[in-house]
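Reopening this ticket.

The earlier resolution said the output was attached, but the attachment link was broken on my side. Pasting everything inline this time so it's all in one place.
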Amino acid sequence: MNTALVLRIPEAESCVAPWRERHDPSAAQGMPAHITLVYPFREKSGIDAEAEASLAYLFAQSAPFNLDFHETRRFPASSVLWLAPRNPAPIVALVRALVLAFPEHLPYAGAHPDTVPHLTVAHLQSPGAGDLDRLDREFLTSAKPHLPLRARVEVASLFHKSDDATWREVKQFRLGQI
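Inline output:
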C-alpha cells in the first residue's frame, strides 16, 4: 500500500479534469489535481501518531502561499504534459523540509535529482511525440480562458492507495498552523 504527500489544487479541476480523466491513470484511481511533494512516502502502517505530529509541525512552519500556472511543459524523453507553477520556490522548500525530516523517503524514490513541481495534465502510457504535441495544442486551446490559473495553497494532504488501487485522502495538514 502506497502513500503520497501532495498539495491539492482544486482550482485546477475544471481546467484539467477532462484531460486527466482520459490521459492520467492516477485520476482514474481517485487522485485529484495536485502537485506531488513526496511519493512514495511511508507505508500506511508506518504513519503513526509521531509521524503525523512531525508532519503537522513541518507543514505548520510554512505559510500558505499562492500559485499561478501559466504554461505547459514536458519532461525530457517523457510522456508527461504538465502545468508549471510560475514560482515553484515554496513547493521546493516544502519538499526540501520533508527530505530533511524523512530522508529515507525521497521524492519519486530518488529517481530524479531535482525537484520540479508540476501539475500533471496528461501522462500517456505509450505515446509518440506527435501525440503529446497534439494534446498540448488541444489542451492550451481549451484551457486558454482559465490561464493563468490561480490557486491558494493552505493545506498539504496525505493520500493512501488502498488494496483496490484507489487513492483516498486520509489526513490534511494546515500550512502555517498546528
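Reporter confirms the inline version is readable. The first strand starts at residue 3 and ends at 8. The chain has a mean pLDDT of 93.
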